[in-house]
Amino acid sequence: MSQTYDDNNVFAKILRGEIPSHKLYEDADTYAFMDVMPQGNGHCLVIPKVPSRNILDVAPASLAAVIATTQKLARAVKSAFNADGVTVIQFNEPASGQTVFHLHFHVIPRFEGVALKPHTGQMEDQGVLAANAEKIRQALAKV
Prior knowledge:
5 strands
């Protein structure tokens, strides 16, 4: 990998507690939280705790942990929002649309006939994020 990991990226700061987040789930290897600029209700993110820019440089064991947590969150958001499906998205390098260079998976509940909102950079109301986070945490307790 020619690029180096920047430990000042926003997700590294979230992991260090320098930036607040609406935590959904945490284990020894992964952390899941609400996306503050969601493309749909319940849009959340799953990241590894170890530094990695993206899928191209992550250690296989860390990737396996992130995938397991992503599956857990996908089941929870589908249940929490009574969704018809779940979109899981992961970008690698700028040409693919990656803007935060810490490996992350987007998990978004989906509904028939409802398009994703565009990524406008507009932050969601914190109360909405908190309410959605609570719904997901409750669903996680059941999956």
